[in-house]
């Protein structure tokens, strides 16, 4: 439980309080405003400008957004990236929560040995850079090296192997699964912590009432960790809709094959910096970033108003 | 234990071991093969290096053709300085927000929490412009400033929760003792925030070390690349040279794994501590 | 050392007023104990004296100086907290000297004061230990030591003993009493514990619901509680109350009747026919017998045997309970109907608004039970 605050400011002279606030809050507020909030706002402002080849900027209102959503040259890749991003997110939701819950449930079993070891090992991928993880999987799944093919053959499923990362049909889902593999540690840990927070007596009471481990898990523990699961989901949403590193390091800025793995992050990067196929366009880049901002905002609002409200937090 | 219980426990361990293998297998595979000669990498990828297959040729290549040590020192500087500033400024702000009642404190807390949910990446266009016009383009300072701004909201949130757990009596005792407010923070409160460092590290420091985006857009020369970016570029360049690629990956993996293993207890405790519910 | 004066003090949190018009004077060197039920505002009052909570209106004077707007450290107070509030990352010596650094006490003087306090509190061997390596009682002594070295004009204690076990509480209580004798300090002390209040206090302040109900010497509160609240609060088990009504007034005597006790006469004084009263008798003042100015009757439902005495819980004719202390080995048995009597001075009379009515003892219905 949080301790009550002191009411020391009540009899503090105003000037002294102002000095203290300036001292304590000043650095954080200045750096944060200057390098986080201001760039966001400036980017949004920039999205209403256009620049000609000479570099001069002129105000165009919402024209950039009309181009982005209406001009086929722009809208096709945009919708493609958005669609891919939704698939990317959907795979995360379908995989990481169930796996995270299952692992956390196993880890929190009373009297489990080697708990610390399992936790440490299973959380390890989460600590590594996405770049490294992506590239490592790229090698493992490569038909050149043949590790994955060999492994499948060993269990008699050799015919299932395909160069998944190279195929238009499977590259995106494969990348999503790599990302799940890396980040499943976070839902696992947070749910595990939530499970540990459930008082022992509650479980004992259920056991006395004659419930088995499975029933206890589904009827008592799961409802109590639902808030954590929804928090993890919204964190995942935000992370997924500005993901970039994985696709870029495995597939490059062009997010091949044939843009099959293009998501909003890579689309934004290409638009802003350009690539082999097109020149960089800061104002259109700003427009893409602004749209991404509103997508994330929309997601957060949906979460706050639809999910958060219905989910009850239980105090123990 | 009855036979049934034993079977159950065995099943649980089997599942956990299988998943653990899945989690570390790929990493192990990369690191293991980085110490082998090329023919062994392809011939028997699952075998650990032995006297016949051991080779450091990949590492030699990485050291020769990339500035890996510069990348390490850059990453270290950027991460450590950012961490110090995030912790210091974050704790100071968290203290003021939780301890002092003042008009607008709720609004300020809300303002500071925007950054928890809205990724600072979306402001990259303007950040790049700003850094260019301030002459900070391609400097570690630019990275540090951005990372501090990025890390502050979460660290303020986490540290506020920790500060609230510090008994009110303790701060009040210090006030009765005549300790000035700034000293109360630095000499009474700050030393008690040590357990919070692990939590802050997991949520703000690890992402900094691992970040690709900002080094990619803010640094352009080898002398300012971080490990993540440097290795990424190296990989792209030497993609067909498997020894070098595996060695470069391992060199990015190993320091992190070592530090992680040393600190994992604290890190996991930090992650599962009450501060993030 | 200094006196303390509180005038028309109010404390509001938003719309709720937690302290209402507090007036209290404390003499130099006096030991004053604040008691009252949980949430009545004792801690708030203490924290306002310390300067940890702001004053909504009214004044606090320490040593004839208004301290309303002074910072805690400038008020010449020291506070000891229930939770000890020792700095966990400093050893005992550092805990005691830490505050002195900031109030301009020279290092040599700091050492001298610590040495003296340590000797007084038997902390000499513990000076280099950290709080986590101390027992609860030792921690509390360190907290007291930290207060002493500041040489404050007023010591403030907020339930300093309530985290200690029973035996330690008694010994530390004695220690605090000794300290007060040696230091001749002005002390304001908050507690839940009546025994602490009775044994330590020069005067007790009984608070309820943000108000002061009564201020007085411990035995005065016990024998002459100003109102029903104080009567019920001081003493354990609590005083028994009997609702009563004035039936007739004849010859300067008021005939009083009610459920559970035999009718009795009181001096009429200002009483009128139809007035409602409450009679209060402490369990320890009820003795078995048939003759007394006050006699109550009930059926024994439960007997709690404590050793030197037992408490009998009796049900009255109207169904309510009252308690009597029974001395000796022979205790009444369950289901037995018992009559208990009390002497005139031990029967407290309260008027309809709960204020105690002083009764000249002589003019009671001199000992004869008036049968109804
Ligand atoms: N910051 C605050 N905001 C609102 N109400 C408060 C605040 N602090 C205290 N109160 C209220 O003031 C009243 C008095 O509290 P206080 O702590 O003084 O009681 P107390 O007599 O010390 O109780 P206890 O014996 O339990 O310690 C309580 O009803 C409490 O709820
Ligand atoms: Mg209190």
UniProtKB/TrEMBL annotation, chain A:
Principal localisation: membrane
Regions that span the bilayer: 20-41, 86-109, 121-140, 146-165, 172-196, 216-241, 253-272, 284-306
The keyword Lyase appears for this protein: no
SUPFAM superfamilies: MetI-like (SSF161098)
One term under GO cellular component: plasma membrane
PANTHER family to which the protein is assigned, alphabetical: ABC TRANSPORTER PERMEASE PROTEIN (PTHR30193), INNER MEMBRANE ABC TRANSPORTER PERMEASE PROTEIN YCJO (PTHR30193:SF37)
Biological process (GO), any one: transmembrane transport
UniProt organism field: Bradyrhizobium cytisi
Keyword Isomerase in record: no
Family label: Belongs to the binding-protein-dependent transport system permease family.
Stated name of the protein: Sugar ABC transporter permease
Keyword line: Cell membrane, Membrane, Transmembrane, Transmembrane helix, Transport
Domain ABC transmembrane type-1 residues, every copy: 82-305
Domain of life: Bacteria
Membrane topology note: Multi-pass membrane protein
Compartment(s) where it occurs, according to its Swiss-Prot or TrEMBL record: Cell membrane
InterPro entries the record matches: ABC_transporter_permease, MetI-like, MetI-like_sf
UniProtKB/TrEMBL annotation, chain B:
Record bears the keyword Cell membrane: yes
Membrane spanning stretches: 12-32, 71-95, 107-128, 140-163, 184-209, 244-263
Membrane topology: Multi-pass membrane protein
Gene3D superfamilies reported in the protein's UniProt record: MetI-like
Protein name: Carbohydrate ABC transporter permease
Domain called ABC transmembrane type-1: residue spans: 72-263
Family: Belongs to the binding-protein-dependent transport system permease family.
TrEMBL record, chain C:
Pfam families: ABC_tran, OB_MalK
InterPro entries: AAA+_ATPase (IPR003593), ABC_transporter-like_ATP-bd (IPR003439), ABC_transporter-like_CS (IPR017871), ABC_transpr_MalK-like (IPR015855), ABC_transpr_MalK/UgpC-like (IPR047641), Mo/tungstate-bd_C_term_dom (IPR008995), NA-bd_OB-fold (IPR012340), OB_MalK-like (IPR040582)
Cellular component terms (Gene Ontology): ATP-binding cassette (ABC) transporter complex, substrate-binding subunit-containing; maltose transport complex
Ranges that cross the membrane: none
Gene3D superfamilies assigned to the protein according to its UniProt record, in alphabetical order: 2.40.50.100, Nucleic acid-binding proteins (2.40.50.140), P-loop containing nucleotide triphosphate hydrolases (3.40.50.300)
Cell membrane keyword on record: yes
GO molecular function, one term: ATP hydrolysis activity
Domain of life: Bacteria
CDD domains assigned: ABC_MalK_N
Residues of the ABC transporter domain: 4-234
SUPFAM superfamilies: MOP-like, P-loop containing nucleoside triphosphate hydrolases
Coiled coil region boundaries: none
Location(s) in or outside the cell: Cell inner membrane
The entry's keywords: ATP-binding, Cell inner membrane, Cell membrane, Membrane, Nucleotide-binding, Transport
Membrane topology (UniProt): Peripheral membrane protein
Major subcellular location class: membrane
Family: Belongs to the ABC transporter superfamily.
NCBIfam families: PRK11650.1
Role summary: Involved in beta-(1-->2)glucan export. Transmembrane domains (TMD) form a pore in the inner membrane and the ATP-binding domain (NBD) is responsible for energy generation.
Protein name as catalogued: sn-glycerol-3-phosphate ABC transporter ATP-binding protein UgpC
Primary gene name: ugpC
